[in-house]
Amino acid sequence: MLPPRWSLAVGLTSAFVAVLGGATLAGSSTLFHNARIVTNDGRGTVAKALLVRDGRVAAFGELADLEKRPDAAGAQRFDLGGGVALPGLQDGHVDLGALAYAARALDLTSARTYSEVIDLVQARAKTAKDGEWILGYGWDEQGWDERVLPHHLLLSARVGRNPVFLLRRAGRAALVNQFGLEKAGIAGPVQLTPRAAGGRILEDAEGRPTGVLLDGAVELVRKVLSPVEPSELAAALLRVQDDFLARGWTAVHDHGTRRGMLAALRELAQRGELKLRVVSYLDGNLEWDAAALAGLVSSSSAGAPGAPQEGLVVSGVRFGLDGALASHGAALLDSYADAKDEKGLLVLTEDELAQRVSAVVNLGLQPVFEAEGDRANRLALDLLERVAAAQGDLRDVRPRLESALVLSTKDWPRVPALGVVASLQPVAVQERLALYAERLGPARMRSLCTWRALAPELGRMVFGSGAPRVDADPIAAFATLLDPKLPPGVSGDDALTIATPSADDALTGFTSGPAWAARQENRRGRLKPGFSADLSVFSSDPRAPAGSAAKAPLPRLVIVNGAVVWRAK
């Protein structure tokens, strides 16, 4: 018998308006009008006005009809400016920790060669104190002219008085100079260095570290970095929040929340500065064991679980199962097409994972699996079958499978059969199709699964950006979904990976789909009576075909719980 499903409104009360710092007061009503309001009610209804009371939708329809309602007496009027209002858009997959790190680190995303990376780091070193860590973010050898992983020797020769830690754009690898390797105790022969659980320390022909650390090995350096002050983390989070709001998002699902991040989010919420809804999935690999989770549950001051207006919710625990495809770390059933002796690596054994997942399910939280390779995805599905056999049907728990793309065709039917909610990041997939083709080869490219294969019930699919791997831009995401482009060198057979949904399906993937995945489908994702009044307002419909509008769509307003939390200047 499974425990009741619920999520934790961490450290918050149900007075969500106060949490968000909005202007809505108890008993107040607002009539939003002058826009095409897409309700996503399942019937294709587009309204001209929306009546909101106490932060929730009371009714939608024609403005004149809503004005006659008794509960509209004294309602404030709010002109939406003639644009298109969508139910609040939710980014189903982000890494707030990496985004906050990127917000306070040296930006390396513009570098097109390793030499440019070194130039940027050297310029920063000129203003840094001797011995001070230099942090960078955003290098990606796949975008360099040489397209090969770097060696630290050139970096170390030019930046030797400061330890350097440069996180790769996907966040799964880092480049460290000699000084940084020494501080982490991994500067000697690789076979004599500390064990890198679930990761790799790349070595050169002489058996010495190249300075490139993959997956779990990155943690060997993270633990010796200078601690981040809570105020610095909170300031970085506010910058990240501003960026999401300015793009039209009302909510994000954060995968891999660590203790410091959760504390910072809680602090911002209590100060009334958290305007973006955050659904948190805790980091189950490193920080949150069964005892810590039980303590979090028992210490929650949220009152009744699942309060309808919460802004910060811990919904589950995320487990990273394998490495990255780009670095040949994704765990595959068969060898890589471009590395015949390589099948990737698993971060956790099935027994380790089973113990942790059982604890998560026992607490009524959702297990979330992030797996890039078909072997890792199979491990997740095998484990869920094992847990279901011991603890009961998991459909109400709603396990999640993130980055669900490289799966064996034999495993496709198991995803909906087990009640697993699948997630895809369409822009990240399209940007990396050429890389997939290189790593997997033509045969496996043709077997990459589609969103339709994993979600025969359309309301059960989740789309996300995968930020910071790619920009969290909903307009670009809609364009990718509705008008996909194949990169050079990728054949038409590979178009399966970006099969085109309808405009309504695409909207579902960023609204009611994420709400379903977070077990909030009865209060978010649609503009129906009783649902939270969350709206993303654009100058024109971001789902419209390219060239159909006189001007490209632009975000205008973000409304959360009936209160305007962002507006275009």
Describe this structure in words.
This protein is of the alpha/beta class. The chain contains 20 helices and 23 strands. Strands 1, 7, 14, 15, 16, 17, 18, 19 and 20 form a nine-stranded mixed beta sheet that branches. Strands 2, 3, 4, 5, 6, 21, 22 and 23 form an eight-stranded mixed beta sheet that branches. A six-stranded mixed beta sheet has the order 8-9-10-11-13-12, with helices on both faces. Strand 9, helix 5 and strand 10 form a beta-alpha-beta unit. The longest helix is centred in the middle third of the chain and has 18 residues.
The count of β-strands is: 23
Count helical runs. Answer: 20
Stretches where pLDDT falls below 50 for ≥5 residues? 1-6, 11-23, 301-309
User: How much is the radius of gyration in Å?
Assistant: 24 Å
N- to C-terminal distance = 53 Å
Name the beta content range.
Answer: 15-25%
Instruction: Describe the global form.
Output: globular
Taking the sheet with the most strands, its summary is: 9 strands, mixed
Structural class: alpha/beta
Q: Percentage of helical residues?
A: 25-40%
What's the pLDDT, averaged over the residues? 87
Give a summary of the structure in a few sentences.
By secondary structure, the protein is of the alpha/beta class. It is built from 20 helices and 23 strands.
